[in-house]
TrEMBL record:
Protein name as catalogued: TonB-dependent receptor
Swiss-Prot/TrEMBL keywords: Cell outer membrane, Membrane, Receptor, Signal, Transmembrane, Transmembrane beta strand, Transport
Membrane topology reported for the UniProt record: Multi-pass membrane protein
Family: Belongs to the TonB-dependent receptor family.
Pfam families on file: FecR_C, Plug
Residues of the Protein FecR C-terminal domain: 30-93
Primary localization: membrane
Signal peptide residues on this chain, from the entry's feature table: 1-23
Species of the source: Allotamlana fucoidanivorans
């Protein structure tokens, strides 16, 4: 996207804002109840919990700014025939009046177990999931904006072994084993700047649901976890907008009522790194490009210079149309784009050579959703979407006179029908059908020597699911029991997937929880370190082929890629009283069908194609204390043992997983005083397993002899982060905030990876990938 187009988008946003502001000012007498509640939350530091239908279509006269909270709630109760019930000094449940009992069951089935889980804006529900509301999110160490994928790493059991949001490890799984949904659409690209920044705009994301285990039966894929990001889905006739920038990018968003029944939500974000060279960009570049083609040595006898240009952007749009009180249409669009190109110049035989190499990575998604409320008990949701991921690279090697073209493309089209039936106040039945067609292609085209390989696979999957949700009258017992049945017609394979979520409250402040699930997925990523995209992007998507090595008609080899299958069980006890939370959860997870090519081995198994499994056992512990709404502190600790088993590797014996981080410790705290928010935290984890060469056996014939796989470890990882945010008012309608953060405050040199290669003289080279050094960032935002 050119700068002219970018500024055109920003100008359009401000134009739309002006129009919406004029229309908004024409009617200030009545406001939606939703907008009034949001303002009360911000003003008084409280949280409301309610079912959407409880406040849907309700309006009230604007509240006097000097009205007390108690008086405001009393007036809203009377005008809207609602009941406001305080659960503690910060949490208010909104229920329909006793005259309308049909809605009460919705609130029961969505009971919140823990509010302010870690910090404000994060809650834990009684089905085992964790919900994040970016707009209500408190401050976290090292973050000045609510980056969705950075935020979830604060949850126990969630981490990134290499600091990237494109490589999130949830209970020992790899990143491709996480299912990322954006308003129900599967996403295949999750990061900007090749993994350092989330690709999803947090200011248009209303809610994020995270399932580490016990996920609902409606979710397919994601043998490791579910990260379900949802945009606002209600037409509430409330305008809001915002814009801001930091040392990496600038963005703007707007939520624009077009009429009483229509609304438009738009956002745009673009990097400023190709315009301004900031210290944050320099640190990010050093981290990402340290092992890329244009930082590797090209030889002493050649003169090589490079001039790289990098930028990214994303745009989103959602159109909401309430056709009638019972019928709703929703249209979604998202486009995420990263672009890198660099010139490689050299003088060879007294002749100047200059060639351009480039890499583009993008994900485009389009979806249409139709919601029908047949009556107070029955509702249906139909969705159709297309998600397209495309990674293109052209790499020129001047010295060897080579040009390599690589492409990885994913086409994912799906149709889903979900049926929800509320039997009574305690019982809910959910079921549905999903059809998915996924096609993945990989292309490699080399000119010298001539070589071309193009492989495309297509899989169609049909699934039916059903789930029963029960909540006892006293809300102490909650159980979700369901199942999903997947059928892959290409392999004539039927895969049953039972799901379980059980929660029991006892002794008032204790809750016992059991979660379990079987899951499967047909897509995965392989890591081709010998032939990656410019040395930057090492992962490419592939489809399962049912464990078969296939030789195509043109003698091209397709290596075995099984359907991934997982089993997981966890049990925990949670205690919450007077702002103090103690949570412990033990778990075991087994994932079968992984391949060596998906794990990124850089030892004796780097060129081996083998199928195996990994098993992880562990425990997550969280201590969280909140003091008078101003001080929040927490300590989370995870202990786990994560091991591989490949029948034909290491004599069939188990050995440590590449992301076996035995100990993970996070200590953090935040303090709020008036308009200031401070946060600081420490992140620690055990060193990543590595394999060292055998010192007693020197390399021979270009082959390195290694010790036992993953028998050594890097030094432990340690990082201290801090951040501060100051909020203030520019006018009655306009708010602003200023933020500053420092990542790796102590500037500790953490080694994220270490591997070995041979030089031209058959001598060992030790190569290390370092973490981000001390990295400051600054942001400024305006909210309308």
């Amino acid at each position: 996207m050119t700068n002219k187009r970018f500024f055109s988008i920003i100008s359009l946003c401000f134009l739309l804002y002006s129009v919406a502001t004029i229309s908004q000012n024409t009617n200030k007498k009545q406001e939606t109840l939703s907008s009034i509640l949001k303002r009360l939350e911000k003003k008084h530091g409280i949280h409301f919990s309610y079912a959407n239908k409880t406040i849907e279509g309700k309006h009230s006269a604007s509240l006097d700014e000097h009205l007390s909270l108690e008086a405001a709630l009393q007036r809203l109760e009377t005008e809207n025939q609602l009941n406001f019930e305080w659960l503690d000094n910060k949490f208010v449940v909104i229920r329909p009046s006793k005259k309308d009992k049909s809605e009460f069951k919705i609130q029961n089935l969505e009971e919140v177990v823990v509010t302010n889980y870690l910090t404000s804006g994060i809650t834990k529900l009684n089905d085992g999931s964790i919900t994040i509301k970016p707009q209500d999110l408190g401050i976290l160490p090292g973050l000045i904006e609510p980056d969705v994928l950075q935020t979830i790493q604060a949850i126990p059991g969630v981490t990134s072994a290499d600091e990237k949001v494109s490589n999130i490890n949830i209970r020992g799984g790899t990143h491709d084993q996480n299912l990322f949904l954006w308003d129900g659409i599967k996403m295949y690209q999750s990061g900007h700047f090749f993994g350092l920044i989330s690709a999803f705009n947090p200011y248009t994301t209303k809610q994020v649901n995270v399932y580490k285990n016990g996920s609902l039966a409606q979710y397919g894929d994601g043998v490791s976890s579910i990260v379900d990001m949802r945009l606002s889905n209600d037409v509430d006739n409330e305008f809001n907008a915002g814009a801001g920038f930091n040392f990496i990018n600038a963005d703007g968003y707007a939520k624009i009522p077009l009429s009483n029944t229509t609304e438009l939500q738009i956002s745009a974000r673009r990097s400023i790194t190709d315009v301004i060279n900031t210290i944050t960009f320099e640190q990010y570049s050093k981290r990402i490009f340290q092992d890329s083609d244009f930082t590797k040595s090209k030889g002493n006898d050649q003169s090589i210079s490079t001039n790289e240009n990098f930028y990214f952007y994303d745009v989103t749009a959602k159109f909401l149309y309430d056709v009638s009180p019972k019928d709703k249409l929703r249209f979604n669009f998202l486009h995420v784009d990263n672009n890198l190109d660099y010139d490689e110049q050299s003088t060879i035989n007294q002749r100047d050579e200059a060639l351009n190499s480039k890499l583009s990575q993008r994900n485009t998604a389009i979806g249409l959703t139709y919601i029908r409320d047949w009556n107070s008990r029955l509702s249906t949701t139909s969705q159709f979407y297309v998600s397209n991921y495309d990674l293109d690279a052209t790499n020129h090697d001047i010295i060897n006179n080579q040009r390599l073209i690589q492409e990885n493309e994913v086409y994912d089209g799906a149709a889903k029908m979900d049926i929800n039936y509320k039997v009574n106040n305690q019982l809910n039945i959910n079921g549905g059908y999903q059809f998915t067609e996924v096609g993945i292609s990989n292309l490699e085209d080399l000119n010298n020597p001539p070589f071309r390989r193009y492989i495309k696979e297509v899989i169609r999957t049909r699934a039916i699911y059903t789930e029963l949700s029960f909540l006892s009258q006293n809300t102490k017992t909650r159980i979700n029991l369901g199942g999903r049945l997947n059928y892959i017609n290409k392999f004539d394979m039927l895969i049953p997937e039972p799901r379980l979520s059980f929660s029991q409250r006892f002794l008032n402040h204790f809750r016992f929880e059991v979660l379990g699930e079987f899951k499967s997925q047909t897509t995965s990523q392989i890591i081709d370190l010998q032939n990656d995209f410019l040395g930057i992007e090492k992962r490419r998507w592939v489809l399962a082929n049912n464990n078969k090595t296939v030789i195509t008609n043109d003698n091209q080899t397709i290596f075995p890629v099984p359907v991934l299958k997982s089993k997981q069980l966890s049990a925990g006890v949670h205690f919450k009283k007077n702002g103090f939370l103690v949570s412990t959860e033990a778990f075991i997870k087994q994932v079968n069908g992984i391949t060596t090519r998906s794990q990124g081995f850089q030892n004796q198994y780097q060129f081996v194609n083998s199928i195996g499994s990994y098993q992880i056992k562990g425990i997550d512990v969280l201590l969280n204390k909140e003091i008078s709404n101003t001080i929040t502190s927490w300590i989370s600790y995870s202990y786990s043992k994560n091991t591989y088993t490949f029948s034909n590797l290491n004599q069939g014996n188990s050995f440590p997983n590449n992301v076996d981080l035995t100990h993970i410790l996070n200590i953090a705290g935040s303090y709020t005083y008036k308009n200031f928010k401070w946060a600081a935290g420490l992140n620690y984890h055990s060193g990543k397993p590595i394999t060292k060469p055998d010192p007693s056996t020197p390399p021979e014939d270009g082959i390195i002899t290694y010790l036992s796989p993953n028998s050594s470890r890097l030094n432990d990882y340690l990082r201290v982060d801090c951040s501060i945010i100051y909020s203030f008012s520019i006018s009655n309608e306009t708010k602003a905030s200023f933020g500053a953060s420092i990542w790796n405050l102590l500037n500790k040199k953490n080694i994220l990876n270490r591997y070995y290669t041979l030089n031209s003289e058959n001598n060992l080279n030790q190569i290390e990938n370092e973490s981000l050094g001390i990295t400051p960032n600054v942001s400024f935002r305006i909210f309308l």
